[in-house]
Design goal:
269 residues, alpha/beta, Rossmann fold, seven-stranded mixed sheet, five-stranded antiparallel sheet
């Protein structure tokens, strides 16, 4: 069994401000450590459940958040940014995986479940998929679904865990904290690590992951609201895009790779 893990930092236990993710902040080293402990626990749980190898994508904005020598054997780590259309799921296209897991994930912009709630980049006010507020989890879950890979586990803030269960009812979730305004209430970091280990193992054991298939819509309508009118106007020239308001554009496709290309050039670009 091969397992793919996408790990982010903004849903890491105890994190409550963007400054704490920046290299020149004294707290950033601690939260890189905790981010690493959490993804290592997920990998260890996967291995205990029978995974032969675990591929980890460091999905922090720099791609350099995970501390490599803290990871267990039987893991591979993809660092840096490949700058391909798969973004936080880079590497998922290079081999066949049996299950996808996610750690350190966060709520999308316009959600109050995390002070760090955002969508891929911070200049996006809202991102909608088929008229529903979405974010990095939904985009990445559909990427897994495109490759017919179940998404069996997620950890992060309570808001994103709740959203994940709406999209994939069988997914195992470990909410490590909950946001209130600019604050978070978090589990003990050690408790979070233990629960992630146990949840990861549970999500794979005895083939449970097979019940966590991603139901792919027949078509996708992506709505993006930017902070800047100029950016919306600029991206309105992308093939297939319609500008529906001064700060809003819309894109439709039945092919999810086309959606990823749109995201690549009109959001991540």
């Amino acid at each position: 069994m091969r397992v793919y893990i996408s790990c982010d930092i903004e849903g890491t236990c105890g994190l409550c401000g963007f400054a704490e993710t920046e290299p020149d902040n004294p707290c950033s080293g601690y939260f890189r450590e905790q981010m690493t402990r959490e993804v290592a626990a997920a990998a260890q749980g996967a291995i205990k459940a029978g995974a032969d190898d675990v591929f980890i994508k460091d999905a922090n904005y720099s791609g350099r958040g995970v501390i490599p020598d803290r990871l267990p054997p039987k893991t591979q780590l993809m660092r840096g940014n490949a700058c391909d259309i798969y973004a936080m799921m880079s590497g998922i296209n290079v081999r066949k995986f049996d299950a996808v897991m996610m750690t350190g994930y966060h709520s999308p912009a316009k959600d109050d479940a995390n002070p760090l709630a955002h969508n891929a980049v911070r200049h996006i006010e809202t991102l909608k998929i088929n008229n529903e507020i979405a974010g990095e989890f939904a985009l990445n879950a559909y990427t897994a679904g495109y490759f017919d890979i179940p998404v069996s586990f997620i950890s992060g803030d309570k808001g994103i865990c709740d959203m994940a269960q709406e999209l994939i009812p069988g997914i195992v979730t470990v909410p490590v904290q909950e946001g209130f305004g600019g604050a978070t209430i978090a589990l003990s970091p050690s408790d979070a690590v233990q629960m992630i280990f146990e949840g990861s193992e549970k999500s794979l054991k005895d083939g449970y992951y097979k019940s966590c298939a991603v139901k792919m819509p027949q078509s996708f309508e992506i709505g993006v609201s930017y902070e800047s009118r100029v950016e919306a106007y600029r991206n309105s020239f992308y093939p297939g895009v319609i500008q529906v308001a001064p700060k809003k554009i819309r894109f439709k496709s039945t092919n999810y790779l086309d959606v990823l290309r749109f995201i690549h050039f009109c959001i991540n670009g």
